[in-house]
Amino acid sequence: MNLILLDPSEVDAHHARITDARRLTHLHDVHRAQQGDRLTVGIQGGAMGKASLITLSQHEALFALEDLCESAPPALPVHLVLALPRPRMLARTLEHVTALGVKEITLLHTKRVEKSYWQSPELRADKIHQHLVLGLEQARDTLLPNVTLCKGFKAFLEGQLPQLLSERRGLVAHPGMENACPRDVDEPTLLLVGPEGGFIPWEVEQLIQAGCDGMHLGPRILRVETAVTALLSRLF
Amino acid sequence: MNLILLDPSEVDAHHARITDARRLTHLHDVHRAQQGDRLTVGIQGGAMGKASLITLSQHEALFALEDLCESAPPALPVHLVLALPRPRMLARTLEHVTALGVKEITLLHTKRVEKSYWQSPELRADKIHQHLVLGLEQARDTLLPNVTLCKGFKAFLEGQLPQLLSERRGLVAHPGMENACPRDVDEPTLLLVGPEGGFIPWEVEQLIQAGCDGMHLGPRILRVETAVTALLSRLF
Lengths: 236, 236
Known about the structure:
- The structure is a homodimer.
- Chain A is an alpha/beta fold.
- Chain A folds into two domains: 4-65, CATH 2.40.240.20; 78-235, Alpha/beta knot, CATH 3.40.1280.10.
- Chain A has six helices and eleven strands.
- In chain A, the strands form two sheets. Chain A has a six-stranded parallel beta sheet with strand order 8-7-6-10-9-11, with helices on both faces. Chain A has a five-stranded mixed beta sheet with strand order 1-3-4-5-2.
- In chain A, strand 3 and strand 4 (48-56) form a beta hairpin.
- The first copy, chain A, is elongated, with a radius of gyration of 20 Å.
- The A-B interface holds A 2, 73-74, 95-96, 99-101, 138-141, 183-184, 217-223, 226, 229-234 and B 2, 73-74, 95-96, 99-101, 138-141, 183-184, 217-223, 226, 229-234.
């Protein structure tokens, strides 16, 4: 928790009050926070700055906010379309990509996504929110990503992809493509990453016919969470 | 397990036999392997290729090896010096960096490494070996990284660093450095990454005085496992 991310409902003009067990425990056990300590805070969707701890008990922490005038760090110019990973991988991947600055995430069904993954409790809005918050707290950011679920590949292809590509360059990460992943890109990008086992050839063909470029990350097969971090870091 | 990594002791001229529960369970439950299936295998430290499954029981799998004439994928030209992370982070980080192709890893004590981490069972040679093997199996590689433990920062600075830097460019990843992480490097590199909380200023000064260049990955604070993957992917 490199930033205490405050919900607007926890803030009045000059003070913030938090009462949830997770953050209180962290303040007690990790920060070992004491009255008078200045900590980094940020308001969800807003600015960041410092706050002084007025009181800390087992039940609440009360902060006096200083002028919050620091902006959140820049976002990556990317919309990430990720074939739904298995639940534990999803949780970690959401934290990684949120920390790295992704603000638009579509979780997509593809042929090699196990259908049972769509029933996982990890897909509940509150669970997803939890992982996004952990990513923001890690990276000192205040702007939550949007996460959209898309349970049909064809529906995505026909319904959403044309609009997404009208303003972005589409890049499909897939082993065996001719071109290597580009580096140091700053144009708006739609990055598509397949599941463990990859997109099926038909899916890759459809994405390329729709206007995406294929690219690869080299001969090594990486886990989804490693691949996504590696792709984002190389691209931007 | 994208590759069945065979210990030389499991191989005779044209056959391989594996008997450990982990790989047998994986063959049964994930691969759902059947007699006659061709799977990708590799011999530790050697070549890769295909093998046909002759028999699979609860107790052993017997393979007929085809000509193993594929080389392991290229290694990254890097020696990674990593301040010892907390045990669970260490485990995952070893898997990530092995999958990415790192072959030389030094785990280093620095001021902000909790001393208790050095007592963790995760540092036992057999546990480390396990994570390296998982990384190789993921990435289809056969060459195990060397992992060295260095429990003293000064000892490292005076004893090992000069030699390491005589053949490599040293790069210290540290927030607030003037230069950004370089991209697309192919020269031999010594990459030094601090613990959660970072190197202390004195440590950074000493590393820079010894001839390393400082660099940063941007304003976001990343977890060690995310940062290391991001650094390796951007550098190479």
